[in-house]
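Hi W.,

Here's what went into the run:
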Amino acid sequence: MRLQVKLFGPLRPCAPGSAVEVEVADGARVGDAREALAALLASASPSARALVARSVLATDDEVLADDARIPADARTLALLPPVCGG
Amino acid sequence: VTEDVLSFGDVTDRPIDAAALLVRVAAPGNGAGTLFLGVVRDLHEGKRVVAITYDCFAPLARKELVDIAREAAERWPGVRVAVVHRTGRLEVGEASVAIAVGSPHRAASYEASRHVIEEVKRRVPVWKQEHHEDGSSDWLDGRQLEPRPPR
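Here's what came out:
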């Protein structure tokens, strides 16, 4: 399946439009997608790999665990680096 | 935006109206009210800061703020909580987050307010880009988000 992934915070500058597309196997786990994103973004920014290692994937409703299956209806996910709100 | 009698949470790209937030938590049974503001400061780790841009994943940020407010209202019975986080570019002195709590007694009001800001910092997908006096900018490091434990 092909996923559209939106980038936030310090990851925004890593791709035009702050979004990338990544191809993952049907039934793949969230961690597989995160690995693919780390490799993809590392080519754009050397510091991105370490940042993606500390990032999580999320839907509009929840943060996804690495060992969870990617929701079958997911077309768009968000890649969220460490947060610093407040 | 989810709203009920006891709790409210939202994100906004406009200046936060703190007085309106206090009105949201007003009730005849309240004997205490607290307003917490997180404010953009002019100094961070030795660098002069002129502004901060707050980036945000709005759908999840809004949901987390709503959940945090509701959880606090459940944990401290009788307490009303309203929390709003700002997005976009804020100058020094502007409020980035506001938490209004109304409560029958002061202890719960202070406790709930403190709890809410700590949860905001831990759970809400927001990022700070600091702008310095010399024209440079830095994205600040933060805390890794975690999946919510099953309930």
